[in-house]
Amino acid sequence: MLADSRGEVQRGLEVAEFACGVPQLVKGEFSAQVSAGVDAFSFREPLGVVAGITPFNFPAMVPLWMHPIAIATGNTLVLRPSERDPSASLILAELWQRAGLPGGVFNVVQGDKAAVDAILGHPEIAAVSFVGSTPVARYVHEHATRSGQRVQALGGAKNHAVVLPDADLDYSADHLVAAAYGSAGERCMAVSVAVAVGPVADPLVDALARKAKAVRVGPGRDPEAEMGPLVTEAARARVARFIGGAQQSGATVAVDGRGITVPGCEQGFFLGPTLIDHVGTDADVYTQELFGPVLVVVRVDSLDEAIAVINANPYGNGTAIFTESGDAARKFQRGVHVGMIGVNVPIPTPMAYYYSFGGWNDSLFGDHHVHGQEGVRFYTRAKAVTQRWHGGAQQAASYNFPTAN
User: Fold this and answer.
1) Known catalytic residue: 188?
2) 340 FRET partner, CA 20 to 30 A, in 45, 65, 267, 372?
3) Domains along the chain with CATH numbers
4) In angstroms, rounded to a whole number, what is the distance separating the alpha carbons of residues 54 and 370?
């Protein structure tokens, strides 16, 4: 969708703006007189050559999470964009060139797995940033770390949104529908599981179904459309199979998007908003990352049970709670094992100039989140210097372990 693409670019520009202030974050620290006539200080230096491996769903924003910070901290970067939409990276390269960046600082390498494998373990590449599915993130992490490369590999997600009985039902349903079906569900922060607590379940499902049926599906260039097609026919068919499997296993398909047709786009890879109720946590439609416009509803009796459901899931990217209770929200944010949490905010993507983006568990492999201050730390390493100048009496050498005496 055009509006979605504009939003993607804007969120990427926020990282570029943050990178303009990077000197403030790499200046290090200074401590005077840590011992007699001895000062200590630190500073951060670039790693050298780093690489970014990015997915199809945000071809401008995700690279912008990486290269502005990598270059601002003094590195050169090799970008391997998704082979499904390679042109955005070339536009970025042209913009860097027009801005006066020296040749060889920002480099684009097109290709598929062969290009990725050439990056992993390359002796001149010090670090690799990756965003994609969990199986590939694990592959990138294992192969890169084996050769000593620093790695941040962001994987998949199964983002839950808990709705408590005291929540504003209309507000919650509006935001859940937008979070589940925006970008056709093809984003790692999409809400794919609504956890309905107690008596809110039936009215919530009714509201979600009504609003899901009203979502306008159409081609990306249609300004009236709210949701577009999936990326490929294979992706559409895969999601449709999961919907069929859920139906066969006894779940209730409250809204079925498999039969949708878009006039004038009959050959498009469209799948309408789909809502599946009474889903168990052992169902394939729950355990697998579908990456499509499917929202499943899991019913529980209490907030404690909702937290337990979230923590039992192998992913830990993003989560949210809808409630009017500050006590419940505080219990939730302290109790869940998830990296990004929203309170009445379904897609809690942090602002780049304050906090970094990244999940827990199978949603992140490596020690650092992407962009923000975590990004600065990832693309640099620290040096600590302890120095003494012989302006006066020289201190005798000691064979003992050095202390501050």
Assistant:
1) yes
2) 45
3) 2-155+363-387 (3.40.605.10), 159-343 (3.40.309.10)
4) 12
